[in-house]
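This section describes the prediction task in plain terms. A model, or a person checking by hand, is given the sequence of a single protein chain and must write out its three-dimensional structure as a string of tokens. No templates, partner chains or ligands are provided. The sample shown here is typical of the held-out split.
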Amino acid sequence: MSARIITVYSTKGGVGKTTTAVNLAWLAAADGNRTLLWDLDPQAGATWLLDVRQKVRGGAEAIIVGDKSIAKAIRSSSIAGLDVLPGDGTYRDLDITLDGAKKSSSRVARALKPLRDDYDLIVLDCPPGSSLVAENAVRTADVVVSPLSPALLSLRAHEQVGAFVEESAPGTPVIAFLNLVDRRKKSHREAADALPGRTRAISDIIVPASVVVERMAERHAALGDYAPGSPAGRAYAALWHAVAHAPRTRGSAA
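The expected answer:
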């Protein structure tokens, strides 16, 4: 069976999307899956966290709409079983490039097609917002994972994600969860107590705010490398379990 594709997506920035993508990719590889993490964000946070060389000859345009072999752009990481397709600043202009391309909403799927038999799982770290890049990443996904900030207003953000996914790729399951929850804050406690019960699409998995998550940047590593038994490490492990067992209800776009 060809690789499952997991897109980590939010309409908002600053919700821990990149740390989620890195931890899911690490856990997938640790489970024995041949895993690829594609960093589609021009900030290249996942690429930096995994200490992978960023520069790709020809940049994003050459990979997605040009004639560059996508396989030649892939870098090995220090983690067994985990490869990275690095992001860089050229992804800032990718929406403009896609807008002028034929079949602009399926270019990411087309680029990934040669790799689908080489990997068991492909994780897409998607930039926030309702862009053509995001539409591409959602259209090719088997599952969309959506981190939410711990605030009651996140229900609105969740609804926006759901609407965007339904418009771009009807039927694709969405797994949303509250991320970076600090229960010392009243607003965070209220969100954590109320939101998971509002809709089945918001799971009861809650990732706490923790210094061990912040140390990912210092260590250039996922939590599984140095704090798997921490509350945050266990929460991400539960998230990976939910993602790994999500029903494959649709084929990825071609």
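For orientation: The chain is about 40% helix and 15% strand.
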